[in-house]
Amino acid sequence: MELPYEEQLKLKSDQLRAHFQDAQFPYLGDIEVHSAGSAGLRDRLDFSWVGGKLGLYKKQSHELVDIETCLQLSPALQQALSEIRKVSWPANKGSLRVRVGPQGQKGLWLDFSNIDIKNLLEEKTILKKLIPQFTIEIGQRRKILFWTGQEFKLRDPQPQAWFQTWMGEQVVNLYCQVASFTQPSIQANKIICDIISEWLEGIDQPRVIEFGSGIGNLTLPVLAKAKHVTACEIDQLSLDGLQMTLQHLPTSLCELKERISIHRGDFQKKLMQDFSQFDLVLANPPRSGLMNFLNPLKELLPHQRPRYFIYMSCFPESLVADSLKLRESGYSIRQLHIVDQFPQSAHYEVLSLFEREQL
Predict the structure, then answer these.
(1) Which of 176, 193, 232, 314 is catalytic?
(2) Which one, 50, 147, 189, 192, has least CB within 10 Å?
(3) Which CATH class name applies to 5-34+185-356?
(4) What's the order of all strands across the beta sheet hosting 207-211?
């Protein structure tokens, strides 16, 4: 944070190049760095509540830092946080996700113990103040809170348009829960979608398999350019959101629904699909990387392997480790981009386009 912002961006580029160098996989091409701004990008936050404090833990410490304001939050999210901070939660510890949607709607996910949730529902006063302003989800099952007129009840999760992606220049609402994983910033996400769309312009209607489709944030930009997309995801609630998004596609895009197949499973452990059926692999894995997902590549003859591989990651260490595996299968990096979704921090998003050597 003590560095001028342009220097921060250069440092991130240098660090990414050093990761490849340290792995003895030197990347000599350009690294293009994109920024949506030096602050005010985040549309969601995840804070812990411990002993009356709401904020984040110090690095390598069990001490919670109480956070009232943060320059990384969008103005709407900062306002939502200010409202949440007025609450003294009747629990010793727990976690909260606060989110602002594309239409300005506010969401709150409370992940407290069962006994603390029971006490909160019976106390009523706190939730009565919040429920006119926030859609409130409770617990790991993401139940929706509602008021019957006499008491609070919980109903099954209900996807809403909490995020956005782009299919070309067409904005598309993404349906999910407040608790769902999304990119942290709608504004920065537009840059990500534009990069991927530009890459797809140079690939003639590929057949695509996607690992970790989630709610469809990358699925849909690719679907706009692809012959067919096979979307693979383990989380059923994410897939429920993707299905609802497809049902609500703009009229001009509805015919694209025929080009997508959805599969549920833990594809880090075992892949049922045959890679030889695809021209492009799209992956945005968790911090652990692709793990066993790449193993089927080795079982194919070189010319049977997909020609292209798009890999997105906010954890460069696992990206580099998987890049080494891709190199063993005949792939080289064609383009490397950084999207600075996390300004004023050491973190960043990496988008990489690999191409298989032509035989």
Answers:
(1) 314
(2) 147
(3) alpha beta
(4) 31-34, 331-339, 349-356, 308-313, 280-283, 207-211, 228-233, 260-264
